[in-house]
Amino acid sequence: IKSTGQKRKDVIARAGLSEQYGYQLLNGARSTTDRDKILGLCIAAGMDVEHTNRALKLSGFSPLYSKISRDAIIAAGINQGICSVMEMNELLDKEGLSILNLRDTS
Predict the structure, then answer these.
(1) Count of Cβ atoms closer than 10 Å to residue 15 Cβ
(2) Which of 56, 78, 79, 94 is paired with 48 by a 20 to 30 Å CA distance?
(3) Nearest to 78 by CA among 106, 23, 39, 105
(4) Phi, psi torsion values for 21, nearest 5 degrees
(5) Do residues 64 and 74 lie in contact, with contact meaning Cβ atoms separated by under 8 Å?
(6) What is the DSSP string of 5-73?
(7) Rounded distance, CA 90 to CA 17, Å?
(8) Could you give the CA distance from residue 4 to residue 11 in angstroms, rounded to a whole number?
(9) pTM of the entire predicted model
(10) What is the helix (H) or strand (E) element at residue 76, kind and residue range?
(11) Contact (CB, 8 A) for 79 and 67
(12) Burial class, 54, CB count within 10 angstroms (exposed 0-12 / middle 13-18 / buried 19+)
C-alpha cells in the first residue's frame, strides 16, 4: 500500500471494513480466518495477482487457484484492473458465484 502512495484509511474504506478492524488486520495485531477479508483489502489496494497471492500466503491462506471457478473469476477481475470490491462482487454474482463477504466480525 505504501509503495503505491495510497493511504491505509482509504484502502480500508474501499474494502468495506471498519477502520479499526482494517488497521488491526494490516498491522498484524489481529488475524482473520476469513480469506475474503484479505482478498477485499488486496482488491481495494489495486494489487496484482502476484501480490494478492503473496498476501494470501502471508496470512495463512491458499493463493488464488485457477481451477477453482471463484478464484479464476477473482484473478481475471484483478487482471482486468478491478479495484472495487463492489465491482468484483457484481462480477462474481453475474457468474453465479458467492460474493466476497466482508462483513465486519470484530
Answers:
(1) 25
(2) 94
(3) 39
(4) -65, -45
(5) yes
(6) T--HHHHHHHHT--HHHHHHHHHTSS--S-HHHHHHHHHHTT--HHHHHHHHHHTT-PPP-TTSHHHHH
(7) 18
(8) 11
(9) 0.87
(10) helix 69-79
(11) no
(12) middle
d(CA 77, CA 45): 14
Which residue in the block uniquely carries the three cell numbers 484509511? 9
Tens of pLDDT along the chain (106 residues) come to 666 678 888 888 888 888 888 888 887 777 788 899 999 999 999 999 999 999 999 999 999 999 999 999 999 999 999 999 999 999 999 999 999 988 765 4
Residue type at position 44? A
Question: What angle is formed at CA 96 by the lines to CA 93 and CA 97, rounded to 5 degrees?
Answer: 75
Residue with cell 497471492: 53
Report which of 45, 63, 66, 43 is spatially closest to residue 53, judged by C-alpha positions: 63
